């Protein structure tokens, strides 16, 4: 009897929802600017949603020789800030380095 009582109490607890429905896709993230700590340094990530689930992204604080690092920061950060759980960002174009920023577009996938 005690087990049945404790189970019914859990089902009624605030913030606990039991459902058989599949989770909905995460809504598109709002534009944001975040500091990102990577390989012992802090860089600035800016992301802005566009249509079709694509995000314009910039990574500041890296040199023109750090393309691979910029790609890693952008794709993993997009996965953290905007993608449904378990997905990472995937680049949609080749990154370019202009005005001391790496610029690229990425999408969850």
Brief overview:
The chain is α+β, with helices and mostly antiparallel strands and 109 residues long.
Structure write-up:
The chain is built from two helices and six strands, in the order H-E-E-E-H-E-E-E. The N and C termini lie far apart (47 Å). Strands 1, 2, 3, 4, 5 and 6 form a six-stranded antiparallel β-sheet that branches. The chain is globular and about 50 Å long. The chain has one domain (27-108). Residues 22-26 have low confidence and may be disordered. The chain is α+β, with helices and mostly antiparallel strands and 109 residues long.
Helical residues, percent: 10-25%
- One letter per element, helices H and strands E, the order comes to HEEEHEEE
Per DSSP, the total helix count is 2
The structural domain count equals: 1
Average pLDDT works out at: 83
Taking pLDDT < 50 over at least 5 consecutive residues as the criterion, the unreliable ranges are 22-26
CA distance, first residue to last residue: 47 Å
């Amino acid at each position: 009897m005690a087990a049945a009582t404790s189970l019914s109490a859990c089902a009624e607890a605030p913030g606990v929802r039991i459902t058989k429905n599949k989770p909905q896709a995460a809504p598109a993230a709002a534009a944001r600017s975040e500091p990102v700590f990577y390989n012992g340094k802090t860089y600035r990530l800016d992301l802005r949603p566009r249509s079709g689930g694509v995000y314009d992204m910039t990574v500041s604080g890296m040199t023109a020789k750090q393309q691979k690092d910029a790609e890693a920061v952008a794709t993993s950060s997009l996965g953290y800030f905007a993608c449904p759980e378990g997905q990472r960002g995937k680049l949609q174009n080749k990154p370019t380095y202009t005005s001391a920023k790496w610029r690229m577009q990425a999408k969850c996938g």
